[in-house]
Amino acid sequence: MNPSETAVAAEPAWCPGCGNFSILEIVKRAVAELGVPRNRLVVTSGIGQAAKTPQYLDSNMFNGLHGRALPVATAIKASDPGLWVIAEGGDGDMYGEGGNHFIHAIRRNPDIAHIVHDNMVYGLTKGQASPTSGRGFKTPVQVDGVIMEPLNPIAVALSLGASFVARAFTGDIDRSVEIVKLALTHRGYALVDMLQPCVTFNGLNTFKWFRENTRYLDSSHDPGDRKAAFAAAIDEGKLALGVFYADSGRPSFHEACGAYSSDGRPLRERNRDMKRLASLAAAVGQGSRA
Question: What's the pTM value of the predicted model, to 2 decimals?
Fold first, then answer.
């Protein structure tokens, strides 16, 4: 069985027409086309409708606290670099509650794919504005409309030096699959901001709205040019889709961190010196009592 097949029948807890269905299909196709063994794939997530995605994949998974998928994914990849690791969740989960981890994951450059379901609203908690909601967007909480500028995750990632930055749209599954495959095979941290509609709580940013307000980066765009990527990210016209920037020249977190790279084997395969561990534990215990 490959990762595109589910181990058991499951009823997704998403509204009919939700963009999460498309993202689930995109991830399934991407890992299947790359031939990723299901026992070598790990998907981490936090809390939210998007964060339920790993429950519908036949793979290893870790479903944790709100906004905490990235540090878990970083640790999993570092402890066993042979794994394929995806951290996924919604725009609120990743850019709101998980905003601090988003920033520092970019700095660490772990070799993971970060897929964000960006529907510009909190769906699980029934419709309040998220970090990417546009100014003026009215919700049951923001009754007079959002007064803040929306977060631009592409510009943030580029400004902090992310080694792979892309945006995709669930209305174009074929091209989104190719973008996710590039993210999965990239050496280092790879962000894919995946635009999707929330058909229940966001009546503005619909499939039609995304089709009318997005464009693909043209063939002249050089993904090795960070300045050009940033210019495209802050363009006030239609939202650009595609790979903004890609640089595999930097070492990833586990490659740069001696504790993980010096031995060359996953942590689970290394010998443990139990006497040294006992001595260290005793020393720590004495220090805490002092």
Answer: 0.89
Q: For the chain, what are the domain ranges?
A: 19-289
User: pLDDT per residue over 75-100, tens digit each?
Assistant: 999 999 999 999 999 999 999 999 99
CB-based burial label for 21 (10 Å; 0-12, 13-18, 19+): middle
* Amino acid occupying residue 46: G
68/79 Cα distance (integer angstroms) = 17
The CATH code of the domain at 19-289 is 3.40.50.970
The answer to whether residues 252 and 278 touch, using CB atoms and an 8 Å cutoff, is no
> How deeply is 125 buried, as exposed, middle or buried, from its count of CB atoms within 10 A (0-12, 13-18, 19+)?
middle
Q: Give the distance from CA 137 to its chain's centroid.
A: 25
Measured CA to CA in angstroms, residue 186 lies from 7, 42, 78, 103, 251 at distances of: 28, 16, 15, 19, 11
Say if residues 3 and 47 touch (Cβ distance below 8 Å). no
Picking from 52, 63, 46, the residue whose alpha carbon sits closest to that of residue 14 is 52
**3-state class (DSSP) for residue 5:** coil
| pLDDT higher than 80, residue 267 | no
Element (H, E) at 76: helix 69-79
| DSSP string of 168-220, one letter each residue | EETT-HHHHHHHHHHHHHSSS-EEEEEE---TTT-SSS-HHHHHHTEEEPPTT
Q: Residue 252: which of 157, 156, 164 has the closest Cα?
A: 164
List 168's β-bridge partners, or say none.
Answer: 194
